[in-house]
């Protein structure tokens, strides 16, 4: 059975990402009349001066982002010509290896203006890891920060040597630019060189054309939670589509789009559910409007009154890592809607709280560890965070208990969402009405997205039946770079089929209304003596335990056979005392035993019971907040094995 989004979408297919985002500046007539002045208002605010290596940085508007992008592009061409090198264009790659910067997007878009692609690299990666990525994408240059400069230099040299997996070394080390203006290799010098080229260089760049559906704009790396990261190829067209999809789903949390309101955002579905979608016209009747009221709410219908705030009153905090597809896409949405935001390089609770207080932040995207701090840290009481009424969680599953704790303490409503890098990444997002009528779901499919739910034999399932989720839509990736095996596994029937679906590896249920409930990762399901055990079911039970601050459940190899043992890794609320030098091992053993007994008492089937508990100071997580389950298994050794119960 084919599930369709209740929202139609016909995204532009012939417009590059940078032209789409800069359209309101380049063509003022395309702007909605009430929005034209917003292109010059401060939009991207830098990190507070006492927490940054760029204390002189100032907020920049959308017009200034465009100016920076084109000057950087012109500078890349000028410096290349000065060295007698070929000009930048299709096939070239700029690797951005940097923490969040307020002008990060200008660097990305500047490379795209030349016709090149951009690879997003995790700044926490060590030189050998970065070298591998540079070889894989064929990087021509690196844009980094002063803090990561030495690692970038080492990685650039290492990338010239042949690597594993048949990746040949680069012909020469990538050139390195640095965001900080005071650095000897600052990109400011490239930007200045671009400015000196004058109007002719700008006109030449404006004539550069890409094939939006065929040319790769962004290369992002999958999280690698269950294996080695793969390079995901995202086209200009897929990213433009996902910007529109995400904006539609966020209409109650962002300023009005600068353009396209009547084309993509005013229509509502003439449907009473996802299974009976009909065509939609530009004008809808009162009856259709009434039907739409039963579906996810819009700004005017928000139950907490946030929707009553004037659209121009939104101010966001950008904390998601921009090297991650999720963070990058949300940055693009900010440009498309001129929704101002302060950009932080990483999560530090005091800096986060201070920024919320100073800027009267209304909304931010977070990951569960941040919500955990908001729910439990005493530091929160030192700041006025009353302006923050909404947050959206992503990257890792959001527990009902954590959501309730944040709302009870601060009055903040937390919505969940679902995405993956391979879908640019937004697939669905909750809004406030979803919390009321479909709790514990991640919303409905984004506009223009289709899905199947499939069992282990490839049979299509219907509403409320559990199976693997297959997806397709205008935001779907082109495929993995240099990885034929992964592409064969990912696409059904094949990567070359225009009607192909992407296998997500996620186990879900979709109800008759189209609401998606994620139950597990296919790779995470534990095989215990022929039975399948759901880690998320056990994790939900653990989160109900008062002493549990964070947890994860995975399968540990049984030394007696080829089976897996359901094993919990837990961070306790009083972990400092239990992990200190004076920690009492007997007390730790008792804590493990008590947790296991409590959870197992609530599990009906014997095969679902926990066979062990390991207490940790913290869980290993990616920078986007996902738990790295592959790294947990190394901790289930020694004394922990004594916790096995058969």
TrEMBL record:
<feature type="domain" description="AMP-binding enzyme C-terminal">
    <location>
        <begin position="537"/>
        <end position="626"/>
    </location>
</feature>
<dbReference type="InterPro" id="IPR000873">
    <property type="entry name" value="AMP-dep_synth/lig_dom"/>
</dbReference>
<protein>
    <submittedName>
        <fullName>Related to 4-coumarate-CoA ligase</fullName>
    </submittedName>
</protein>
<feature type="domain" description="AMP-dependent synthetase/ligase">
    <location>
        <begin position="318"/>
        <end position="481"/>
    </location>
</feature>
<dbReference type="Pfam" id="PF00501">
    <property type="entry name" value="AMP-binding"/>
</dbReference>
<feature type="region of interest" description="Disordered">
    <location>
        <begin position="28"/>
        <end position="58"/>
    </location>
</feature>
<dbReference type="InterPro" id="IPR025110">
    <property type="entry name" value="AMP-bd_C"/>
</dbReference>
<dbReference type="Pfam" id="PF13193">
    <property type="entry name" value="AMP-binding_C"/>
</dbReference>
<dbReference type="GO" id="GO:0016405">
    <property type="term" value="F:CoA-ligase activity"/>
</dbReference>
<feature type="domain" description="AMP-dependent synthetase/ligase">
    <location>
        <begin position="60"/>
        <end position="246"/>
    </location>
</feature>
<keyword id="KW-0436">Ligase</keyword>
<dbReference type="InterPro" id="IPR020845">
    <property type="entry name" value="AMP-binding_CS"/>
</dbReference>
<dbReference type="InterPro" id="IPR045851">
    <property type="entry name" value="AMP-bd_C_sf"/>
</dbReference>
């Amino acid at each position: 059975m084919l599930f369709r989004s209740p929202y139609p979408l016909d995204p532009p297919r012939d417009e590059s990402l940078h032209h789409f985002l800069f359209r309101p500046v380049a063509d003022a007539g395309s702007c909605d009349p009430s929005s034209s002045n917003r292109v010059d208002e401060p939009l991207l605010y830098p990190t507070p001066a006492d927490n940054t290596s760029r204390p002189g940085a100032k907020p920049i508007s959308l017009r200034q982002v465009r100016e920076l992008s084109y000057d950087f592009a012109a500078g890349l061409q000028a410096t290349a010509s000065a060295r007698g090198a070929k000009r930048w264009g299709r096939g070239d790659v700029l690797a951005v290896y940097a923490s969040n910067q307020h002008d990060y997007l200008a660097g990305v878009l500047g490379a795209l203006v030349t016709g090149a692609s951009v690879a997003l690299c995790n700044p926490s990666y060590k030189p050998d890891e970065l070298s591998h990525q540079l070889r894989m994408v064929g990087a021509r240059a690196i844009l980094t920060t002063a803090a990561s400069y030495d690692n970038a230099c080492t990685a650039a040299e290492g990338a010239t040597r042949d690597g594993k997996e048949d990746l040949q070394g680069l012909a020469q080390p990538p050139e390195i630019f640095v965001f900080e203006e005071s650095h000897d290799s600052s990109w400011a010098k490239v930007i200045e060189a671009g400015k000196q080229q004058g109007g002719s260089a700008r006109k030449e760049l404006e004539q550069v054309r890409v094939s939006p559906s065929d040319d790769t704009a962004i290369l992002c790396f999958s999280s690698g939670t269950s294996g080695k990261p793969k390079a995901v190829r995202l086209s200009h067209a897929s990213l433009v589509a996902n910007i529109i999809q995400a904006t539609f789903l966020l209409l109650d949390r962002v300023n009005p789009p600068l353009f396209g309101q009547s084309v993509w955002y005013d229509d509502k579905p003439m449907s009473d559910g996802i299974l009976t979608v009909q065509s939609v016209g530009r004008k809808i009747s009162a009856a259709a409007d009434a039907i739409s009221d039963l579906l996810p709410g819009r700004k005017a219908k928000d139950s907490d009154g946030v929707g009553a705030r004037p659209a121009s009153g939104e101010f966001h905090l950008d904390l998601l890592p921009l090297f991650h597809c999720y963070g990058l896409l949300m940055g693009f949405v900010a440009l498309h809607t001129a929704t101002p935001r302060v950009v932080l390089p990483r999560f530090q609770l005091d800096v986060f709280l201070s920024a919320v207080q100073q800027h009267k932040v209304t909304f931010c995207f977070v990951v569960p560890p941040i919500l955990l701090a908001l729910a439990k840290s005493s530091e929160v009481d030192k700041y006025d965070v009353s302006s923050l009424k909404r947050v959206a969680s992503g990257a890792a599953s959001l527990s009902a208990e954590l959501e309730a704790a944040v709302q009870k303490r601060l009055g903040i409503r937390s919505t969940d969402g679902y995405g993956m890098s391979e879908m640019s990444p937004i697939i669905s997002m909750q809004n406030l009405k979803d919390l009321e009528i479909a709790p514990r779901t991640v919303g409905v499919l984004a506009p223009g997205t289709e899905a199947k739910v499939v069992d282990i034999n490839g049979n299509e399932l219907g509403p409320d039946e559990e199976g693997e989720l297959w997806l397709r839509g205008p935001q779907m990736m082109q495929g993995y770079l240099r990885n034929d095996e992964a592409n064969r596994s990912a696409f059904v029937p094949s990567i070359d089929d225009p009607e192909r679906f992407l296998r997500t590896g996620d186990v879900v249920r979709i109800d008759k209304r189209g609401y998606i409930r994620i139950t597990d990762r296919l790779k995470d399901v534990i095989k215990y003596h022929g039975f399948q055990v759901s880690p998320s079911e056990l994790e939900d039970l653990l989160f109900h335990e008062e002493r549990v601050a964070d947890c994860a459940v995975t399968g540990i190899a049984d030394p007696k056979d080829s089976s897996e043992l359901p094993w919990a890794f837990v961070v306790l609320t009083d972990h400092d005392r239990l992990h200190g030098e004076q920690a009492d091992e007997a007390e730790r053993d008792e804590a493990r035993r008590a947790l296991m007994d409590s959870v197992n008492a609530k599990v009906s089937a014997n095969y679902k019971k926990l066979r062990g508990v390991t207490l940790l100071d913290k869980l290993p997580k990616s920078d986007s907040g996902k738990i790295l389950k592959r790294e947990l298994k190394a901790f289930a050794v020694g004394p922990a094995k004594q916790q096995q119960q058969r």
